[in-house]
Amino acid sequence: MFPAAFDYQSPATLDEALGLLAERGDDAKVMAGGQSLIPLLKLRFAQPQLIVDIGRIPGMTEIKRDDGHVKIGALARHVDIERSKELAKLLPVMVEAVRWISDPLVRNRGTLVGSVCHADPSGDWGSIMLALDAELVARSAKGERVIPIDGFFEGPFTTTLRSDEIATEIRIPLPTGRAGGSYHKLERRVGDFATVAVSLQIELDGNKVKKAGIGLTSVGATNIKAKKAEQALVGHELKDDVIAESAKLAAEAAEPKDDIRGTAAYKKDVVRVFVQRGLKAALGRAQEVKA
Amino acid sequence: MRVNGAERSGDVEPRVLLVDFLRTNLALTGTHVGCDTTSCGACTVLLDGEPVKSCTLLAVQVDGREIKTVEGLANGAALAPIQVGFHEEHGLQCGFCTPGMMLVASALLERNPNPTDDEIRWAISGNICRCTGYMNIVKAVQYAAKMHSEAAKAPAAAAVAGGGE
User: Fold this and answer.
1) Which residue of B has its CA nearest to A1?
2) Same domain for B85 and B67
3) Counting CB atoms within 10 angstroms of each CB, which of A42, A140, B57, B152 has the fewest?
């Protein structure tokens, strides 16, 4: 399969890339690892006139701790996250989750920021970023803005990123105190999109939940932040009845459709079960953290 | 770009995929097109030593970089250990997935000379074998790992060269 013809630019600097987008943003697509975009081009679901390949721009591959956040550059690949000792220590849920994303070869090319901007409702990173309350840094020729992930996804493959902007970085707030997370994914085979996946993150204050994040994959038009289910946890000890109530609310927040991977009712029930399992796993991990 | 150690170039449209550049422009047909949808791994090549799917890369993206294909594994007539392993352990039946499997395995052995069976299965999890020869593929990789470690112990007595690099 061949993509439709396009112009290709591989700018050496971010400013050069932003200049191209300022001029031709409406007709352009930004490409990082290309592991979602190139398949779309081949299937001709996307036919941009210009591809701006940011892969050669220096200084965007970093994963670094800074000022209460972990900052992950636009060119940090899934495999870089998989091998990051810093993330294994600070946000182990990301290292657990990344192994569920596609397969090792795709992880050698694809990027976290690229996946989030691709905004596939079946994408894993979107839910994880929603559970972790991440922020995107978007640059344009006019300047920089910070976009909270909650509200970033507008619909399938659609975000609030403007056509003249490049997402240069994701910032994830570091948990304070004892925290734990988990990612649960049901897939038919390695590398498949999720039938359902659920991302969880909790922070404890004593025995009570101080902060909770629940993100849902493949059960709606976007990755979903299950806010009512999160709120049902805050201020409570994670006893069975609290967990069951949150799991029920998360299943209600899911809006899955019947498809070859399962019926809507089945998927909602998987959400419920995964939230229950995931909260128990996250609690166990948070309790292991030394205060 | 450098392909199997030699400088190669060509003028291509930006939409030409790396796998097509290798097969059509350079006549390196050992890199196969399987699913053409980033699923099967038949088109695996090494990009700067790391396995990637060449059906999901534009040729222009690898301008100036280092590519290794299955044709670059052997050193002249001397098979690379991973090739000997596939031969000895019957690691292939139809052979379609084999170039990709061997490249993924050789990259794994570079990073991890003594992998467990689980680590091998993990490494090849992006490569599909439709003959379901996974048992023998894992054995073939273990065979190559053993050859590497024995060659490291007695370099002078090594029966084969180390992968044409």
Assistant:
1) B36
2) no
3) B152
Q: Chain B residue closest to A192 (CA)?
A: B39
Q: Give the C-alpha separation, B13 to B121, whole Å.
A: 37
Mapping DSSP to helix (H, G, I), strand (E, B) and coil, where does residue A45 land? coil
- What residues make up the domain containing B35? 2-71
Q: Which of B71, B102, B126 is the last residue of a domain?
A: B71
Say whether both A88 and A155 belong to one domain.
yes
The SS3 call for residue A101 is: coil
Domain finish residue from A143, A173, A203: A173
Please state the pTM of the whole predicted model: 0.94
Contact list, A106 vs chain B (CB under 8 Å): 38, 53, 56, 126
Q: Which of these, B107, B32, B68, lies nearest to A79 by C-alpha position?
A: B107
Tell me if A154 is assigned to some domain. yes
Contact: A109, B17; criterion CB under 8 Å: no
- Going by C-alpha positions, the residue among A262, A1, A279, A281 that lies closest to residue A122 is A262
Q: Which residues share a beta bridge with A167?
A: A138
To which residue do tokens 């060269």 refer? B161
Asked whether the predicted pLDDT for residue A14 surpasses 90, the reply is yes
Which tens digits make up the pLDDT trace of B62-114?
A: 999 999 999 999 999 999 999 999 999 999 999 999 999 999 999 999 999 99
Residues in chain A within 8 Å Cβ distance of B50: 79, 108
Q: What is the DSSP letter of A68?
A: T
3-state class of B145 per DSSP?
helix
**Cα distance between residue A242 and residue B55, in whole Å:** 48
> ipTM for the complex?
0.93
Q: What count of CB pairs under 8 Å joins A to B? A: 79
pLDDT surpassing 80 at residue A291: no
Domain assignment present for residue A209? The answer is: yes
A2 domain residue, yes or no = no
Q: Does B120 lie at the interface with A, CB-CB under 8 angstroms?
A: no
C-beta of residue B3 within 8 angstroms of C-beta of residue B69: yes
| Residue A281 to residue A202: CA distance in whole angstroms | 10
Residue A203 structural domain: 178-288
Same domain flag for B20 and B54:
yes
Q: How far is CA A99 from CA A51, A57, A106, A147, B55, in A?
A: 29, 26, 11, 27, 22
Per-residue pLDDT tens over the stretch A211-264: 999 999 999 999 999 999 999 999 999 999 999 999 999 999 999 999 999 999
Q: Are residues B61 and B126 in the same domain?
A: no
Residue B123 forms contact with A (CB below 8 Å): yes
Largest alpha-carbon pair distance within chain A? 59
User: Which of these, B33, B2, B26, B31, lies nearest to B12 by C-alpha position?
Assistant: B26
